[in-house]
Amino acid sequence: MSQESPNAARKLALSEKYASKLKTLKSKEARRKAVNKMKKYKWQAALS
């Protein structure tokens, strides 16, 4: 995966952002949503 699309890099950065947000989230619901988003972005980044 040497030639990463800028889109994949952006999605990876987004998943990192959600990962850092997780530490500050208090409610379980908000945390669960952030985890789902994070996984989705990571998965999409891996595909592209």
Question: What does the radius of gyration come to?
Answer: 12 Å
Binned, the helix content reads over 70%
Q: How many β-strands, per DSSP? A: 0
Counting structural domains, the number is 1
- DSSP strand (E) fraction? under 5%
- Give start-end ranges of low-pLDDT stretches: none
How widely separated are the two ends? 10 Å
Largest β sheet strand count, sense and barrel closure:
none
Mean pLDDT: 80
Report the principal-axis shape: elongated
Helix segment tally: 2
The helix/strand series, from N terminus to C terminus, equals HH
Helix/strand-derived class?
A: mainly alpha
Molecular structure report:
- The protein has about 50 residues and is mainly alpha-helical.
- The protein has one domain.
- It is about 75% helix and about 0% strand.
- It has 2 helices and no strands.
- The protein has helices at about 5-20, 30-45.
- The longest helix has 20 residues, at about 30-45.
- It is elongated and about 35 Å long.
- The model has no long low-confidence stretch (mean pLDDT about 80).
Task: Describe the secondary structure blueprint for this structure.
Layout (H helix, E strand, L loop, with lengths): L5 H17 L5 H20 L1
